[in-house]
Write a structure and sequence with these properties.
Layout: E1 12-16, E2 27-29, E3 34-40, E4 50-57, E5 61-66, H1 72-83, E6 89-96, E7 102-118, E8 130-136, E9 139-142
Antiparallel strand pairs: 1-6, 2-5, 3-4, 5-8, 6-7, 7-8, 7-9
């Protein structure tokens, strides 16, 4: 174990089950899970409240990349936000090693766009316009 180094987070791949094409992103966030709890008071017990698990909660998946004028992903997002034609899809996010092989894979189930935004335009700055896509999803499983 003394030669083990944790993997670096810059080499990853994102694949959409129902969309054709290769999609590259600057960042992916929102791969976390939390257990919601409920506090129950017991009559006569004043030292503590019982804390019970209720359900799991997943935040929105946030994908960021340089703005593309025409892509299958943007078409899918626009159909959802402009026409309310929502077509959920599964997403596979893989953290890759030096040989471009998956070290870990997250299978995101039943994702659909809930927000699509671009960075601010500013005539005083010379930088790439970043688009942000937020997706709601049911859950993910790690392989």
């Amino acid at each position: 174990m003394s030669n083990y180094y944790p993997p670096l987070g810059f080499h990853f791949k994102v694949e959409f089950a129902n969309l054709n094409g290769e999609f590259q992103f600057q960042s992916v966030s929102g791969l976390s899970v939390e257990i919601e709890t409920e506090e129950i008071s017991e009559g006569g017990e004043n030292r503590f409240k019982h804390i019970l698990p209720v359900k799991t909660k997943y935040p929105k998946l946030v994908l960021k990349r340089g703005l593309l004028v025409d892509s299958a992903l943007i078409k899918w997002c626009r159909e959802a936000v402009e026409d309310f034609n929502i077509t959920p899809t599964d997403i596979t996010i893989s953290l890759l090693n030096e040989e471009h092989e998956p070290l870990m894979t997250w299978n995101v189930v039943h994702a659909f766009p809930v927000k699509w935004a671009t960075a601010d335009f500013n005539a005083e700055e010379s930088k790439i316009i970043i688009e942000t896509i937020e997706l709601a999803y049911n859950y993910f499983k790690i392989q």
